[in-house]
């Protein structure tokens, strides 16, 4: 199956992998997702905001390294100050090299007006994971406080598409209570939503979260269970590539958390996007959505070189200096 998926990748998107320099610029979050290490309720995390000048310096560094694109990610905030801040930041990042960098935004659920403002300011791709296409499973992963609704998440995906973003989504794999039918439905959901970019990966325990504690106490975070979650994740990449063909699919960091060669496995099974960390080293340990996140000690140069050798090891090349937009988005407009 992996070989077949790799052949489809080669035919439809080429065996060229694209970089999105990942800037995790703040870990403040108003949400309280039960699986996530930077949830509002985790008082053990020190909260940080990367100084604006540093974010811009890192984005400039990505441009000089010919990364082609950056992904700006943070916890979710919906206050006016944050919305203004991101808008200004986008304009500044867009000005680097006169619009040379592709920009993906990943800052959660927002109103249509906010999404539109950010689109106008230069973001052209948006990542918002549905986490699970099954609303019942989604409900077990989030507090039932009226602020974590599956329907709202889904409506946001629709709004982003209406505005004209290239829309990315994805799910966590190997969640407690998740079935193979759920995963099959997830892939069908990508199709139905006409999704251009997929970012998905294994669920990984974070020790200080309600879900992580439950999984640990139930004794179901064994090495065998983790290996199975990784296997399912790589299979999901392969099935998604075989089924959707021309979309972009990320080889996510969570895959490497469960196996040193997790990202290579994903590239060989059809993934074509890598997100090298450019988050400032002093903030990396405070942006831990799950335990054992790799690359905490590495600087951005090391992440660049490390990922380039991973790409070469599977026989691919890097699309230096190119945006590497999802061909699906444009095929769809034809
Ligand atoms: N394991 C795996 N993925 C996680 N995410 C958050 N917490 C975890 C975890 N414990 C993912 C979610 C979210 C994205 C930013 O990170 O899918 O959408
Ligand atoms: Fe916040 Fe995202 Fe973590 Fe949920 S998954 S708590 S929205 S950072």
Would you mind describing this structure in some detail?
The chain contains 14 helices and 11 strands. It has helices spanning 2-12, 52-64, 80-95, 112-120, 135-141, 150-163, 180-192, 210-217, 223-244, 253-258, 262-268, 281-284, 300-313, 327-333, and strands at residues 16-26, 69-74, 102-106, 125-127, 166-169, 172-173, 197-198, 201-202, 248-249, 273-274, 317-318. The two termini are 30 Å apart. The strands form 2 sheets. Strands 1, 2, 3, 4, 5, 7, 9, 10 and 11 form a 9-stranded parallel sheet that branches. The chain has a two-stranded parallel sheet with strand order 6-8. By secondary structure, the chain is of the alpha/beta class. 45% of the residues lie in helices and 12% in strands. The chain binds 5'-deoxyadenosine (5AD) and iron/sulfur cluster (SF4). 5'-deoxyadenosine binds at residues 35-36, 129, 131, 172, 201, 203-204, 206, 254, 289-290.
> Helicity, in percent?
40-55%
| Poorly predicted parts | none
CA-based gyration radius: 18 Å
What is the percentage of strand-forming residues?
Answer: 5-15%
The secondary-structure element order is: HEHEHEHEHHEEHEEHHEHHEHHEH
List keywords for this structure.
334 residues, alpha/beta, two-stranded parallel ribbon, 11 strands, binds 5'-deoxyadenosine, binds iron/sulfur cluster
List the helices and strands and how they pair.
Layout: H1 2-12, E1 16-26, H2 52-64, E2 69-74, H3 80-95, E3 102-106, H4 112-120, E4 125-127, H5 135-141, H6 150-163, E5 166-169, E6 172-173, H7 180-192, E7 197-198, E8 201-202, H8 210-217, H9 223-244, E9 248-249, H10 253-258, H11 262-268, E10 273-274, H12 281-284, H13 300-313, E11 317-318, H14 327-333
Parallel strand pairs: 1-2, 1-10, 1-11, 2-3, 3-4, 4-5, 5-7, 6-8, 7-9
Helix pairs in contact: 1-9, 4-6, 7-9
The site of iron/sulfur cluster has 10 residues, from loops.
